[in-house]
């Protein structure tokens, strides 16, 4: 699924990496615990999380994850956005809660 | 404690069934040619603190072995200037690179030698196995070895489960100095870039980075954010060492358990401290050694093999 | 949808058989307990990978109808006992929280 579709399905906006919205993800993973994410070593995955700490960027970087969807409409702090920019990770943000964002994407065929 | 007895006590050979001679042997081998002098063998043994020297032909095929006892005999007979050829043992008991752990042990038990040369199918010497190598392999094959206080000396004597390479230098060095969690992970991010420039494959780099990151987070969460992250990356092997000054892990068995954590609620709310850090490290590393204890520094060493994908 | 329907539809094992006739009116997926306390609605099916005993306390406080512990994780016996005392149903699912959420959402739980 292209990130442009993710944007459309979840009504998200792109915080970092608009030029990369063409990127495709094949799986999604929803978690607020970064060690849980780190246990899943699969590169082409969209990370869905409610956190906005620098650690979400670091985690994505370690796993080669292309993009993060921040849920619950949380503001991504500037320094976190900057870190995402320097590490080349796309950050999207939606007002949906994690359950709804996951449900919508799953329903549209993005597998776990 | 002799190797034989310690291994008998283990009686869990299947635990080590994945080890073969090529994984146990040391590949830094000092060999001589048949035409070299016995005196040269004597000097080599003294300088390298080894008790036997394999003898190879021009194609590195094993043709003999000279042991300390042969040197002593030659010394008594005044034959130090003679060629190695005249005093060496010709019917050398050797191991094959693919011999199993069990075969290797039975070799040690049957022949009572301190070392065995390891050869390829074509007879070429590729390594040596000493009892220390076997012990190292056993320890490395345990996912975790917690050695602290008296247990350390009781079980291991002066033997170190950690790589000696770090005593001299490391290929990558990062001083962890983290206040709060904001820049936690920077060292691992740098390590990842370093490993990529070294030409390691995507998957092994990912495994090493994830584990380094978990270890770095542990230092930041539990050890006051002060420590070091170092790595040696060569010959298809990445060794990562993360050290801190404590307060240490009181019960490593418990800490390894998925879901167990001493982290505060504040840390949990930041997405860490779910008790999966060490479990992840165990899952993604090929070898893991942890040395710690209550109020002790923690040394964590992880090895990642590029070929093991 | 009742807790019973949730059990049938997500294909999870029942770890604690609580009040399965309870209505489930919404879904909530989260691993941060403070967020659940602040944001989850009563009657939610809560998908998480947390197995801490505090999960039960939070679920009871919020009025969660069923907790789905994901990714094949299991709770310690003290957590199970506490849930039984609260008549709270706990399910174990092999799926990730994403997939559990997806399955429930597709079934119409919004």
Automatic annotation (TrEMBL), chain A:
UniProt cross-references to InterPro entries, sorted A to Z: DRTGG, Ser_kin/Pase_Hpr-like_N_sf
Pfam families: DRTGG (PF07085)
Location of the DRTGG domain: 5-96
Endpoints of the signal sequence: none
Subunit structure: Homohexamer.
Protein name as it appears in the record: DRTGG domain-containing protein
Organism expressing this protein natively: Candidatus Cryosericum terrychapinii
TrEMBL record, chain B:
Gene3D superfamilies: CBS-domain, Histidine kinase-like ATPase, C-terminal domain
UniProt keyword terms in alphabetical order: CBS domain
Top-rank taxon, per record: Bacteria
Domain CBS: 25-83, 88-144
Keyword set includes Membrane: no
InterPro entries: CBS_dom, CBS_dom_sf, Diverse_CBS-Domain, HATPase_C_sf, HATPase_dom
SUPFAM superfamilies referenced in this protein's UniProt entry, alphabetically: ATPase domain of HSP90 chaperone/DNA topoisomerase II/histidine kinase, CBS-domain pair
Entry protein name: CBS domain-containing protein
Originating species: Candidatus Cryosericum terrychapinii
């Amino acid at each position: 699924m292209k990130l442009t579709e993710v944007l459309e399905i979840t009504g998200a906006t792109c915080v970092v990496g608009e030029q990369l919205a063409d990127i495709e993800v094949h799986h999604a993973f929803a978690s607020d615990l970064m060690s849980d994410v780190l246990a899943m070593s699969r590169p082409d995955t969209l990370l869905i999380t409610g956190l906005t700490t620098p650690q979400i960027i670091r985690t994505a970087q370690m796993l080669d994850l292309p993009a993060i969807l921040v849920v619950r409409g949380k503001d991504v702090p500037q320094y976190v956005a900057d870190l995402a920019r320097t590490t080349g990770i796309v950050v999207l943000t939606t007002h949906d809660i994690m359950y709804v964002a996951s449900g919508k994407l799953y329903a549209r065929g993005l597998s776990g | 404690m002799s190797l034989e007895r310690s291994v008998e006590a283990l009686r869990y050979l299947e635990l080590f069934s994945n080890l073969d001679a090529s994984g146990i042997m040391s590949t830094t081998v000092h060999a001589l040619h048949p035409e070299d002098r016995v005196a040269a063998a004597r000097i080599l043994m003294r300088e390298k603190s080894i008790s036997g020297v394999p003898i190879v032909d021009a194609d590195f095929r094993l043709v003999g072995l000279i042991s300390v006892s042969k040197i002593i005999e030659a010394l008594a007979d005044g034959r130090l200037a003679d060629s190695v050829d005249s005093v060496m043992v010709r019917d050398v008991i050797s191991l094959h690179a693919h011999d199993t752990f069990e075969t290797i042990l039975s070799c040690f038990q049957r022949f009572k030698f301190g070392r065995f040369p390891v050869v390829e199918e074509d007879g070429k010497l590729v390594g040596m196995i000493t009892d220390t190598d076997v012990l190292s392999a056993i320890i490395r094959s345990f996912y975790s070895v917690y050695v602290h206080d008296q247990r350390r000396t009781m079980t291991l004597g002066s033997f170190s489960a950690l790589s000696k390479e770090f005593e001299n230098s490391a290929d990558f060095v990062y001083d962890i100095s983290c206040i709060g969690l904001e820049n936690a992970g920077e060292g691992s991010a740098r390590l990842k870039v370093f490993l990529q420039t070294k030409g390691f494959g995507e998957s092994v780099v990912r495994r090493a980075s994830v584990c380094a990151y978990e270890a770095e987070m542990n230092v930041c969460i539990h050890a006051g954010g002060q420590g070091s992250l170092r790595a040696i990356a060569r010959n298809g092997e990445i060794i990562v060492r993360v050290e801190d000054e404590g307060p240490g892990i009181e019960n490593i068995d418990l800490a390894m358990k998925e879901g167990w954590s001493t982290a505060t609620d504040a840390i949990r709310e930041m997405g860490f401290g779910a008790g999966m850090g060490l479990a992840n490290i165990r899952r993604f590393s090929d070898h893991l050694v942890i040395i710690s204890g209550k109020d002790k520094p923690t040394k964590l060493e992880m090895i990642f093999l590029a070929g093991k994908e | 949808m009742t807790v019973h329907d949730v059990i049938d539809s997500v294909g999870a094992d029942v770890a604690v058989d609580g009040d399965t006739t309870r209505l489930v009116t919404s879904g909530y997926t989260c691993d941060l307990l403070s967020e659940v306390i602040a944001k989850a609605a009563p009657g939610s099916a809560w998908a998480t990978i947390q197995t801490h005993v505090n999960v039960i306390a939070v679920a009871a406080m919020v009025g969660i109808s069923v907790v789905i512990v994901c990714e094949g994780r299991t709770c310690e016996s003290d957590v199970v006992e506490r849930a039984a005392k609260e008549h709270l149903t706990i399910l174990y699912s092999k799926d990730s929280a994403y997939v559990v959420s997806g399955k429930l959402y597709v079934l119409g739980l919004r």
